[in-house]
Amino acid sequence: MVNAADKALTDATIQQYEDWKYACQQMRTEDMVKFVNVPDCEEGYPLFKSELPPGEQLVQHAIHPPPKPKPETRVTLAFGNFMYSKLVRLLKDKDIVARQKSVTWAVELLSVPSSRVRCLAAGFLPILAKMVVEKDMFIRQELALCFKYASASDTTWDDLCTLGCINFLVDMVADSNIILRGNALSALNDAALSDEVRKELVSNGKTLTFILKCINKEPDRTCMILEFDLLSKCVAGLNYDQMALTELLKVNAVPTALEISSFTFLDLKEAAVRFLCLLCFDVVGKEQAVKLNAVDIMIPYLYHTEPRIQAFGVAALMSITINIDAKHAMFNSKVPTPSAKKILIAQGVPVLLPMLDLNDDLLCLYILQLLINTAEHPKARAALKGGVTILRDMIKVCASALLKRCSRQAIQQLQFTSRPFKNLALVR
Q1: Residue 37: its pLDDT value, please?
Q2: Which end of the chain is more exposed for a tag (fewer CB within 10 A), N or C?
Q3: Mean pLDDT for the stretch of residues 208-226
Q4: Which pLDDT score is estimated for 227?
């Protein structure tokens, strides 16, 4: 027999459960996207069943299929009548926890294209730019991500420069926190797709030097790759930026690229060799690379098993061998091949013809240009004279007009035999 005390405890427990169950039944849990539709109203709340018209209450008791996930765009737009203006207010809240939560919310919204436009229209960017004075590390990390996703819209590029966000991200690169540095470099790389941001980075004449110094003391491989990619974007530009090249060549950018290219990590090697190729667009860069024996360092890339490493190595050689001394180095270099027999190759020239493979158009184009550059050396022409037949066969089967033109130019270069005037015999 149950005593009165146990019965009272059981009744109280059951009553709490019944109250909770009733509250859950009252909420429209199957459709939480209907809000009060009042113009300029920031607040919204899910309606109770008792607030619905009688006809809709009957629908609530019908048997419904299992709930399905809503599309991302529908969920985003459902809360649009109050979400953005409320978040703008919370970003300026005095409570640091509220600011942390709101800036995380801003990252999530800016990362979705359908909501990014509404965030920018609500005035997110000026408010985020004013938050750069924050001392909290979490907020600073999330701010960098906000600028990264905001830069995906081309309408924000001018504003990022005007509001000082680019300079703020550059300052973040000097921070000791790896996550903050990575987020800032990722944001700068995305923003550097625009001419305005690249001009902002190059114009003061100090930012690229600072980034290069960061590479020399960077302990994190991912951040180092991002730094190389950022410098490459600034150097490349629409064609190539002479101001950026001049600044970097004055601070030993070529030795840094050659040193990092010897690392074993393939992604880091790729970033360094790409940067070296761009530096050697300049005459001074070519001269520095030749003095540092860059041709000897790059020739093993012709034998690399990774196609992308091979392609960038050939591109770097293509850029360097425009220099006359580099043509001699290309022919006279002695570098061991990675074969089992440890055979010593007398020069880097003989490997060029076997690499003319139309299965990789980009690599084939680089090899053709490297062949044209190298064939200006008389001894190299003698070593490559068998390539005329190969190039003629390529012209017959190749579908690319660019490759056909380069093949014809290579044939013309290989068939060159003498200079038209005797007084030019000692030009080279």
Answers
A1: 41
A2: N
A3: 91
A4: 93
Q: What's the pLDDT at 362? A: 81
Residue 144 in 3-state DSSP? Answer: helix
Per the structure block, which two tokens stand in for 121? 């229209």
| DSSP conformational letter for 27 | B
Name residue 56's amino acid.
Answer: E
3 state DSSP class of 48: strand
In this prediction, residues 207-229 reach a mean pLDDT of 91
Where do we find the tokens 């990590």? 265
Spatial CA neighbour of 196 closest among 146, 235, 147, 161: 161
pTM of the model: 0.71
Cα gap 276→412, rounded to integer Å: 29
Residue 320 is which amino acid? I
Backbone angles phi, psi at 128, to 5 degrees: -65, -35
Bridge partners (DSSP) listed for residue 413: none
CATH number, span 34-63+71-201: 1.25.10.10
Taking a C-beta distance cutoff of 8 angstroms, is the pair 151, 157 a contact? Answer: yes
Question: Could you read off the pLDDT of 160-192 as tens digits, one per residue?
Answer: 888 889 999 999 998 999 999 999 999 999 999
DSSP helix, strand, coil percent of the chain (3-state; round to 5): 65, 0, 30
Q: Can you spell out the DSSP letters for 160-188?
A: HHHTTHHHHHHHHHTSS-HHHHHHHHHHH
Q: How many whole angstroms separate alpha carbon 274 and alpha carbon 297?
A: 14
**Of residues 175, 165, 176, 225, the one with CA closest to residue 201:** 165
With a CB cutoff of 8 Å and minimum separation 6, the contacts of 117 are 153
Chain-centroid distance of CA 28 in Å reads 44
Tell me the residue length of the chain.
Answer: 428
Show contacts of 287-294: CB within 8 Å, 24+ apart: 287/323, 288/249, 288/254, 288/255, 289/254, 289/258, 289/320, 289/323, 289/326, 290/320, 290/323, 290/325, 290/326, 290/329, 292/254, 292/255, 292/258, 293/329, 294/254, 294/258, 294/320, 294/326
d(CA 147, CA 160): 8
Runs of H (alpha helix) within 122-265: 124-130, 137-150, 157-162, 165-173, 178-191, 195-203, 207-216, 221-236, 242-249, 253-260
Domain ranges of the chain: 34-63+71-201
Q: Tokens representing 132?
A: 């750069």
- 391 close to 336: Cβ distance less than 8 angstroms: no
